[in-house]
Amino acid sequence: MMRLPKFEYRVPRTIAEAVKIIGDVGPEAQFVAGGTDLYPNMKRRQQTPRTVISVMRLQELNQITGDGPSGVRIGASMTLTDVLENQIIKRDYPVIASAARTISTPILRNMGTIGGNLLLDTRCNYYDQNYEWRKGINFCLKKDGDVCWVAPGSSKCWAVQSSDLVPVMVAIGAKLRFASTLGERVVDAAGLYNDDGIDYLKKRPDELLVDIQLPPTNGWRASYQKLRRRGAFDFPVLGVAACVHFKSDTIASARIVLGGIAPSPIEITEAEQSLIGKPLGDDQIQAAAEAAYIKARPLDNTDFVMNWRKQMARQYTIKALRELI
User: Fold this and answer.
1) Where do the domains of the chain lie?
2) I need a labelling partner for 299 at 20 to 30 A (CA). Which of 14, 46, 64, 154 fits?
3) What's the mean pLDDT in 32-48?
4) Which residues does residue 247 pair with via DSSP β-bridges, in sequence order?
5) Up-side HSE of residue 284: CA atoms within 13 Å toward CB?
6) Residues 93, 96, 100, 101: what is their CA dihedral angle, to the nearest 10 degrees?
């Protein structure tokens, strides 16, 4: 049986109190919302904070405001269930509701939060094991070791970014607001993620994710397609998010983003360029899918054979774009 290590549990009532606590305690503290990622990691001794700071009772993090024409703000502690069942999200941002619905199971969606999914730890077959198993292989580069067992000759950790909502937020141009004792800052979702399985976020440990800012739905359509072994529960081993802005019958701008195959989401600019200035037809979809296939380079650190997952980047890009017609 895997047990949690001992830790102090703090429950602040305001954002100011929360960031002060982590500022005072320092790097041995972590924020927690639903805990569906942090607590299993603590049981496996992947993360061992001495102080855990719950943000579930912060009012500003538990509300959704705005609408499609003006833009929406989603508090970071809103549960995935609350997000996907929200009438404004379902009506104006259906891609977010559909992507959130693919995450895990209903019970875990009742606990897990949108902020937690956007800050999800990277995953790997060699990393996501219990302490004794990892000790048996002499640990890995991501935690306690000095070798990446996915690519032993590499000095980089290749653990995979496995959030379903990250590719979607990057594709639609969402922004994330962080708070700390130094003040606030707003970051484009596209600029938050590092291509490094260890240092995977451009975020300081003392920063608290406050909300997600969705842009106005001004003539764009978006979709998300997810590859996994089972129809529920599993993390993505490939995710494709597509977002296109139409001007009359042609595409004014486009974003194609792949998740689940690298330490960060991958924007396929070649696929985007093949769409701009043209109608969304079969020829354009095939060209974009081929560009996604060429750029997709999954490694052997998740489910399924990596070469087959590369092939699926083409097929799932086709599915994502055809959904927009």
Assistant:
1) 219-325
2) 46
3) 96
4) 250
5) 20
6) 50
Mean pLDDT (the chain) is 97
Q: What do you get for the CA distance between the two ends of the chain, in Å?
A: 50
Q: Looking at beta carbons, which pairs linking 229-233 to residues 24 or more positions away fall under 8 Å?
A: 229/303, 229/304, 232/104, 232/105, 233/104, 233/105
> From CA 148, how far away is CA 233, in angstroms rounded?
27
Angstrom CA distances, 77 to 60, 74, 94, 152, stand at 9, 8, 20, 38
Which pLDDT belongs to residue 213?
A: 98
Average pLDDT over residues 84-88: 98
User: What's domain 219-325's superfamily in CATH?
Assistant: CO dehydrogenase flavoprotein, C-terminal domain (3.30.390.50)
Q: What is the pTM of this model?
A: 0.96
| Helices 94-101/165-172 angle, 10° precision | 170
Query: Tens digit of pLDDT for each residue in 107-165?
Result: 999 999 999 999 999 999 999 999 999 999 999 999 999 999 999 999 999 999 999 99
Q: How far is CA 125 from CA 15, 36, 73, 114, 226, in A?
A: 36, 18, 35, 24, 19
Q: How many CB atoms lie within 10 A of CB 106?
A: 10
* H-helix segments, the chain: 15-25, 38-43, 80-85, 87-92, 94-101, 106-109, 114-118, 131-136, 165-172, 269-273, 282-295, 306-322
Alpha-carbon distance of 193 to 263, in angstroms, equals 8
Paired tokens of 212: 């997600």
- Residue 293 carries which side chain, given as an amino acid letter? Y
Q: Which helix (H) or strand (E) holds 220?
A: strand 220-227
Rounded (to 5) percent helix, strand, coil in the chain:
30, 25, 45
Q: How far apart are CA 53 and CA 24, in angstroms?
A: 12
What separation in angstroms does the CA of 186 have from each of 18, 51, 203? 18, 26, 11
Positive or negative: CA dihedral 165, 35, 187, 192: negative
What are the C-alpha distances in Å from 241 to residues 113, 140, 163, 165, 175?
Answer: 20, 31, 12, 9, 16
